[in-house]
């Protein structure tokens, strides 16, 4: 069955907003991701509480063996991605064997000629990595790597999203969002006044400032309001 990245993400999101089982959603999402990127197999390693790597899921027995070896020996594309917190890519049977010689026989048995691995990152921590395997050499391009990381990020969210939130927790999160929205609206008004621009243009200015600061929208908005109140607001 053909699967696009958009369809894979849509199906995962639909499952998360309903009562769900994390293992089930994650397994289906990874297979959908495998099909979307054109890979022949996919695997996922995660850190256990002790810090050791363990296989969480794999789409085939051979890939499960390969991932288990990476976890035990801390060697291979997935293990490298967890260790460095960066994507890993290699294509071509000879290049794979040269880069990970201890994995050569397992890669050959799995009929793998290209791999890409992406870290599962959460607030500065690397929780694991997702590994896509290809039966033919593939080119490394920015789109392929961006999509692969997006799947790793979504897998992280699936892993950490609770299957249920109580009414008080839902109300608290909604309240926090509304309070942040109020701060953003106030900052838009400040920027519109200081720059003599329409409110829509002021919002664009606020977004530009957020990107330049590298922070969050609500934090930048709070800074704008604070500077205006103290008389140090930059136009």
Give the uncertain stretches in residue-range form: none
What's the CATH C level of the largest domain?
Alpha Beta
Strand and helix order: HHEEHHEHHEEHHHH
Give the proportion of residues in helices.
55-70%
Strand coverage percent: 15-25%
Might you state the CATH topology name of the largest domain? Answer: Beta-Lactamase
Based on helices, strands and strand pairing, what is the structural class? alpha+beta
Number of separate structural domains: 2
Number of strands: 5
How is the main sheet built?
Answer: 5 strands, antiparallel
Intertermini distance:
54 Å
Tell me the radius of gyration: 22 Å
Overall 3D form: elongated
Structure characterization notes:
The chain contains 10 helices and 5 strands; from the N terminus they run ααββααβααββαααα. The mean pLDDT is 87. Helices cover 59% and strands 15% of the residues. Strand 4 (114-122) and strand 5 (125-134) form a beta hairpin. It has 2 domains: 5-160, GAF domain (Beta-Lactamase); 167-230, Arc Repressor Mutant, subunit A. By secondary structure, the protein is an alpha+beta fold. Strands 2-1-5-4-3 form a 5-stranded antiparallel sheet, with helices on both faces.
């Amino acid at each position: 069955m053909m699967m696009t990245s958009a369809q894979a993400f849509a199906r995962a999101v639909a499952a998360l907003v309903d009562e769900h089982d994390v293992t089930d959603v994650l397994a289906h999402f990874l297979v959908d991701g495998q099909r979307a990127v054109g890979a022949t197999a996919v695997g996922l390693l995660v850190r256990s509480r002790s810090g050791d790597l363990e296989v969480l899921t794999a789409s085939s027995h051979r890939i499960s063996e390969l991932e288990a070896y990476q976890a035990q020996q801390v060697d291979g594309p997935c293990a490298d991605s967890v260790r460095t917190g960066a994507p890993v890519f290699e294509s071509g049977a000879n290049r794979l064997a040269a880069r990970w010689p201890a994995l050569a026989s397992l890669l050959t048995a799995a009929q793998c000629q290209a791999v890409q691995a992406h870290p599962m990152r959460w607030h500065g921590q690397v929780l694991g990595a997702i590994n896509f395997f290809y039966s033919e050499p593939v080119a490394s391009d920015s789109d392929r790597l961006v999509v692969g990381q997006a799947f790793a990020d979504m897998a992280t969210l699936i892993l950490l999203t609770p299957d249920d939130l109580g009414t008080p927790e839902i109300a608290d999160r909604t309240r926090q969002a509304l309070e942040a929205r109020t701060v953003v609206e106030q900052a838009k008004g400040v920027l519109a006044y200081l720059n003599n621009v329409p409110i829509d243009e002021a919002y664009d200015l606020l977004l530009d400032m957020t990107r330049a600061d590298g922070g969050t929208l609500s934090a930048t908005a709070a800074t704008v309001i604070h500077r205006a109140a103290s008389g140090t607001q930059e136009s």
